[in-house]
Design a protein that fits this description.
The complex is a heterodimer of chains A (480) and B (484). With 480 residues, chain A is of the alpha+beta class. Chain A is built from 16 helices and 16 strands. Chain A folds into 3 domains: 4-287, no CATH class; 297-409, no CATH class; 418-478, Arc Repressor Mutant, subunit A, CATH 1.10.10.410. Chain A has helices at 54-66, 163-180, 220-239, 263-266, 285-294, 299-310, 314-321, 324-337, 340-357, 371-380, 386-399, 403-409, 418-431, 433-440, 446-457, 464-478, and strands at residues 4-15, 70-71, 74-75, 78-81, 91-94, 101-110, 113-126, 130-134, 139-143, 150-156, 192-202, 212-215, 247-252, 257-260, 273-274, 281-282. In chain A, helix 15 crosses helix 16. Chain B has a domain at 5-243 and 453-470: Amidase signature (AS) enzymes. Chain B has helices spanning 11-20, 25-43, 51-66, 109-116, 156-162, 177-185, 219-229, 265-268, 273-288, 304-319, 338-349, 352-365, 370-391, 415-420, 426-431, 460-472; strands spanning 46-49, 78-82, 120-125, 144-146, 149-154, 168-173, 188-191, 211-216, 259-263, 292-296, 397-401, 435-442, 448-454. In chain B, helix 4 (109-116) links the parallel strand 2 (78-82) and strand 3 (120-125). The two termini of chain B are 23 Å apart. Mean pLDDT of chain B is 94; it is low at 1-7 and 480-484. The chains are: A alpha+beta (480), B alpha/beta (484).
């Protein structure tokens, strides 16, 4: 295995988050009832014509600029013909000959090293619908909601040598596109899909090996597994003298193996030609300038600023800026509580833990952006203690409650006046004579147990410092 | 049988009679429909009649006229529409067995504009399957008969107008169907500049050349209809705004000094002697009015038919691939698997000519042939467009016959020889130029020939002016039997 190197290029399809589809006025929303968003145009009725959604061009140019591409002043749409029931016109409108963006790059960090990945091109195209197989009636039904949802396809150079690099690239790409607001990049919902072109060659060889294309990976983890599995298959074939053929394969994550797609798929001639129904897209310099000026701060710049301005550790800054959704929670919280470090700590520990426990991605968070800052302010002002703050945040995360309301309704305000705490302390000391005598005998750890009992009696709301001080005072009194 | 021209009222005159109240719209519509029904067994011009809808529309339009609502000059006038144009809620077959029972959910922009103007669509006219042909020979519903000779074919829109059952119609023109149909039946037709009329709702044959235009017995009616249907449509990215034709200025159009160019290959072609003679007489007539004619060479014209065949088949192959038996239309009932659905549906559903063109188109676009055929055809197209552009710096209009032969017999045809019939008409299609066909002669058997007038982009007004002047001097009225 050490004698071989894997060479990979990636084609990433990203659904753009425009309100409407690329060539008609239908909603591009995901997850609605089947065929809720279909008109004559996206159903391929005779006599229909496409009209280009300008927002699609804008989003593609935004992505191109963020990925350091040249923006083509002239680009054009082509038809790619093939028959399949999810493609109503029996051709997909795409950009083969004149893509909107070319020659870009994206810098990634993998195995502790920074590497520049070349981007060959970005082109605009339309998505196809979806077949739904109804086993009960033994038939296939088609849902055209996704037909003509705009996509960009980002084609990398064959610059990848390891699965780590691929994963780092996809994570960076996802973060960047999310920052730009051009896509939500949800792999599980198919709004970001990656096809891997992979070949294997002896280390030191300049010549590329036979390349296979792998499709159908639904997560970064399955992509990493697919790369490992396919690399193994290539090496096995090379070592046992088998001939590899250039083909498209479907990764089966359960079986841990890729399977050749039917030969027909591979023998396809798509009969590309320019779509006569659409005018070429002419982009003016001024337009590019305007979009460039409107680009948001991107992950790298943001990370550097967090380290510089807020003094965050590099690791934390890296994780935070890895998702615009984490950034949104962090920046809002830091802004409200005026304590970026504290806000960062909460995101890094509490929020990531909550996400992990719930098996959720940052983009799936639903709570109000102000909530964390509000909780942190209550904490700083002594209105709640840390335990209550965590509990409240978990509640906010779970069901987007208003934190102030939640604390009030559940009577969780911190109790710190000695008048209310003293009687409780007395009761606790009276009821736990064993611990008291242990403490008095010099076992100072017993005070933790007594603090716990006191907090329990105060239903968690006691100010821990006040409770501790009063306990020590009470114990001292009992020293006799 | 043939109805003499004098009996055919112009659409504008009919419209005037409605506005003045001299003739009730409903009565006229009823007469029109019964007229069509009477002629139909012989003519076979219509695929579907909209009897009930037309009556309802007549009542609605009459109401509008009474309440002095803003209506066009043609409000209430019955019109026929080529069956390649979508009519909402009313059957639209595209002349194909694949769409024999297809009812669209929207109307073509041109159709909608006619109806908004108060014109009444009485029915859908027979058409070649997805417009692949000119004289209805490839229609699933059988060919339309020529008004003068039942054994010959004709374009349905032109035949219906020529036989007098309607005064005007909308037709589509890709390689010349509208012009050849008009010429064959001795009526007028205009293929507008590409983009002047929205293609939305026109079933696509070759999208880069398809255009909708008017056919009428009177060139001014054509202009009036063109004014109604033309203009930028936000739903057709290739459509453009064009100036309306000012009909009040047509009377003053003078042929004197009109610079006419004739590409020399048009004289060298294998053309029917009667067509040739009529064309020369037309030129003589124009010269006698002071027009100046000159022959010139236009590069690429000898390859125009080939380029047209490649481009139109290529585009058609993609345009027609949506007819797959999945979503609407005919599906082969015996098909079991997905590939059988595609193969059986398309090989049973499409007629043989459509299938040939689809096969050719796929061949021209295949990865190995793309450059050799498709890209070469595009270069010829560009060359011809350039040649026209420079010619129009010297000439106001370019003239030619419309079709090299007289209306053909109802006989088996072959696809390749059908392409040859397009020799005179495809150059304007390739260059996206406006071109009119006006009658310029009729042989003793009543078979007509047309004169084609091609102008620069957006010169519809000039073409109409020249055509009208030519008709005024009697260019299209004479029967040239004795002179042969």
């Amino acid at each position: 295995m050490a004698n071989f190197e894997t060479v990979m290029g990636i084609e990433v399809h990203v659904e753009l988050s425009t309100k409407s589809k690329i060539f008609c006025g239908c909603s591009a929303r995901f997850g609605d009832e089947a065929n809720a968003h279909v008109c004559e145009g996206c159903a391929g009725m005779p006599g229909t014509l496409p009209t280009l959604n300008r927002r699609v061009v804008e989003y593609a140019v935004r992505a191109g600029l963020a990925l350091n591409c040249e923006i083509s002043r002239f680009s054009r749409f082509d038809r790619k013909s093939y028959f399949y029931p999810d493609l109503p016109a029996s051709y997909q409108v795409t950009q083969l000959y004149h893509p909107i963006c070319k020659n870009g790059h994206l810098d990634i960090v993998a195995d502790g090293k920074t590497k520049r990945i070349g981007i060959n091109r970005i082109h605009i195209e339309e998505d196809a619908g979806k077949l739904v197989h109804d086993d009960w009636d033994d038939c296939s039904l088609v849902d055209y909601n996704r037909c003509s949802v705009p996509l960009i396809e980002i084609v990398s150079e064959p610059d990848f040598r390891s699965a780590d690099e691929v994963v780092a690239y996809l994570e960076k790409l996802k973060a960047t596109l999310q920052y730009l607001g051009v896509s939500d990049c949800k792999m599980q919902e198919g709004s970001m899909r990656a096809d891997i072109n992979l070949s294997v060659r002896p280390v030191g060889s300049e010549k590329f090996g036979v390349r296979t294309e792998m499709k159908n990976m639904a997560s970064l983890k399955s992509i990493a597994r697919a790369i490992a599995g396919e690399t193994r298959r290539h090496i096995d074939a090379i070592e046992s003298g088998e001939t590899l053929i250039q083909e498209t394969r479907r990764w089966d994550d359960n079986k841990g193996f890729s399977f050749a797609m039917r030969n027909k798929e591979n023998a396809k001639d798509y009969k590309y030609f320019p779509d006569p129904n659409l005018m070429p897209v002419i982009v003016e310099e001024e337009y590019i300038r305007e979009i460039r000026a409107s680009l948001p701060e991107l992950p790298e710049e943001k990370k550097a600023r967090y380290i510089r301005e807020f003094g965050l550790p590099e690791y934390d800054a890296d994780i935070l800026t890895g998702s615009r959704y984490l950034v949104a929670v962090f920046e809002r919280a830091a802004d409200i509580c005026k304590n970026p470090k504290e806000a960062s700590n909460w995101v890094m520990t509490e929020l990531l833990k909550l996400l992990n426990d719930a098996q959720m991605q940052p983009e799936d968070m639903k709570f109000s952006p102000d909530s964390l800052g509000t909780i942190l302010n209550m904490l700083t002002e002594g209105k709640i203690n840390r335990a209550v703050a965590k509990k409240t945040f978990a509640e906010v995360f779970e069901s987007d409650v208003d934190p102030v309301d939640y604390v009030r309704k559940n009577g969780l305000m911190q109790v710190s006046d000695t008048g209310s705490i003293e009687p409780v302390i007395r009761e606790v000391l009276d009821a736990n004579r064993k611990a008291v005598s242990e403490y008095l005998a010099g076992n100072e750890k017993s005070i933790q147990f007594l603090i716990g009992q006191s907090m329990k009696a105060l239903r968690g709301k006691g100010d821990p410092q006040v409770v501790r001080d009063l306990l020590i005072k009470g114990l001292d009194e009992r020293k006799g | 049988m043939s109805i003499s021209r004098q009996n055919v009222e112009t659409a504008r005159k009919t419209g005037q009679e409605f506005r003045s109240g001299a003739v009730p719209i409903s009565e006229h519509i009823e007469k029109t429909i019964s007229g069509i029904q009477k002629e139909e067994p012989r003519n076979h011009c219509f695929v579907t009649l909209f009897e009930e809808q037309a009556h309802k529309a007549a009542i609605r339009v009459a109401q509008k006229l009474r309440s002095k609502e803003d209506c066009s000059l043609l409000a209430g006038v019955p019109v026929g529409v080529d069956d390649t144009m979508m009519t909402r809620g009313r059957r639209t077959t595209c002349g194909s067995g694949t769409l024999e029972h297809f009812i669209p959910t929207f109307s073509a922009t041109a159709v909608q504009k006619l109806e908004d103007a108060g014109m009444i669509i009485v029915g859908k006219l027979n058409t070649d399957e997805f417009s692949m042909g000119s004289l209805t020979q490839t229609s699933f519903f059988g060919p339309t008969s020529h008004p003068a000779d039942e054994t010959r074919v004709a374009g349905a829109a032109a035949a219906a107008v020529a036989s007098g059952v309607i005064s005007c119609a909308l037709a589509s023109d890709t390689g010349g169907a509208l012009r050849q149909a008009s010429a064959g039946c001795g009526v007028c037709g205009i293929r507008p500049t590409y983009g002047a009329v929205s293609r939305l709702g026109l079933a696509a044959f070759a999208s880069s050349m398809d255009q909708i235009g008017p056919i009428a017995s009177d060139i001014r009616d054509c202009a009036e209809i063109l004014n109604i249907i033309s203009g930028k449509d936000p739903c057709d990215s290739t459509s453009v705004e064009i100036d309306k034709i000012d009909l009040s200025r047509i009377d003053s159009f003078s042929l004197s000094g009109l610079r006419i160019g004739i590409p020399s290959v048009f004289f060298e072609s294998d053309t029917d002697p009667f067509v040739k003679a009529s064309f020369h007489e037309a030129l003589d007539a124009l010269r006698s009015e002071g027009a100046v004619t000159e022959t010139f060479s236009l590069k690429g014209l000898d390859q125009a038919v080939a380029a047209y065949a490649v481009i139109s088949c290529a585009e058609a192959s993609a345009n027609l691939s949506r007819i797959d038996g999945i979503k609407y239309g005919f599906r082969a009932p015996e098909a079991k698997t997905l590939s059988e659905v595609y193969e059986r549906t398309r090989s049973v559903g499409f007629g043989s000519d459509a299938q040939k063109r689809i096969m050719l188109g796929n061949y021209f676009l295949s990865a190995e042939r793309y450059e050799e055929y498709y890209l070469r055809a595009l270069r010829v197209k560009a060359l011809i467009a350039k040649g026209f552009a420079s010619a129009f710096r010297r000439y106001d209009v370019i003239l030619s016959p419309v079709s090299p032969s007289l209306a053909p017999k109802k006989e088996p045809y072959d696809t390749l020889s059908m392409f040859e019939e397009d020799f005179f008409t495809v150059p304007a299609s390739l260059a996206g130029l406006p071109a009119a066909s006006v009658p310029c002669g009729k042989n003793p058997d009543g078979l007509s020939v047309g004169l084609q007038m091609i102008g620069p982009h957006f010169s519809e007004a000039k073409i109409v002016g020249a055509a009208d002047a030519f008709l005024r001097i009697g260019g299209g009225q004479k029967t040239q039997g004795g002179q042969k």
